[in-house]
């Protein structure tokens, strides 16, 4: 079931719904005071939202100090339905199901070798069909997919998965499940997560995701910035040289081919053995193992180059780091800050609120906004 657009057709309806989602449980009188709308208008909108089961009453709140009737409290109906969010790579599919307030219902990982978009579709469809209804009113309401690659208006322009013929993953899933499907770059979804799962007012932020690839999700004036072809933020494709030579650009390697997290872990395996853990890495770094220290300092240096360009280009309010290595070794973030100390103004460099699930939860937020017809309206979700 999809929400009727008519329900959200005017600004008052959307403002009342937004206030209930972000500040509920809340009374009608509190909504009226918050928005400066008269009580009759607010009450009529709330009645319509309750009739459509978008919000629910949780009973009576406390009466005012002057006494009188205790107010009815309303909040978003989190059990209106559920959304399924997937983060896909060549060798695994993460599957997270969430209710409408963002809270997670179930999380699974499917190990698979996927080479084509058709195979990806088959794996995703089978996984979704195996999910329960989670005792929600309307069952599955939307799907989001995080991929490593370029996406333009739902069309996958570049990814690790080959397309055979004119196969369109978004269309195939929409036809199969009759719900909206959003496909987006994983780094872009990570920055959506940092904004929408936070009480803090974030306007211009960047999320730097470091894994097999290096990507930046960019939020400008609360809106996701993707560029003309959807390639904005592919910072791992930056090229640098410090050899003083005019080397042809085509001969230079993108920075992520040498300094992605995957490449750094491979370097560390050459020192610590292939079965080393991140805890082993942290211990050796803290014990000042010279080889480990050199690798990680070089890693920080190259990330600092990327961050310096992001600061100059976008002047962000804050930069979030989503990296397993930095999450395990927080001291590395201080190394990056020191590397950037030559700059007159460096925004706060902070850890992601959830390095493991940021892309999944960002997808959850986008698809909930879409299903509720609340695009470009700030909704605070929970995790």
TrEMBL record:
Q: Which UniProt keywords apply?
A: Carbohydrate metabolism, Kinase, Transferase, Xylose metabolism
| Swiss-Prot/TrEMBL GO biological process terms | D-xylose metabolic process
Q: Which residues form a coiled coil?
A: none
User: PANTHER family per the record?
Assistant: BIFUNCTIONAL UDP-N-ACETYLGLUCOSAMINE 2-EPIMERASE_N-ACETYLMANNOSAMINE KINASE, ROK (REPRESSOR, ORF, KINASE) FAMILY
User: Do the record's keywords include Kinase?
Assistant: yes
Name of the protein: Transcriptional regulator sugar kinase, xylose operon regulator
Instruction: Report the sequence similarity comment from the record.
Output: Belongs to the ROK (NagC/XylR) family.
* SUPFAM superfamilies with a match to the protein in the record: Actin-like ATPase domain (SSF53067), Winged helix' DNA-binding domain (SSF46785)
InterPro entries found in the cross-reference section:
ATPase_NBD, ROK, WH-like_DNA-bd_sf, WH_DNA-bd_sf
Superkingdom to which the source organism belongs:
Bacteria
Gene3D superfamilies registered for this protein in UniProt = 3.30.420.40, Winged helix-like DNA-binding domain superfamily/Winged helix DNA-binding domain (1.10.10.10)
Q: Which GO terms describe its molecular function?
A: kinase activity
What is the recorded function of this protein according to its Swiss-Prot or TrEMBL entry?
Transcriptional repressor of xylose-utilizing enzymes.
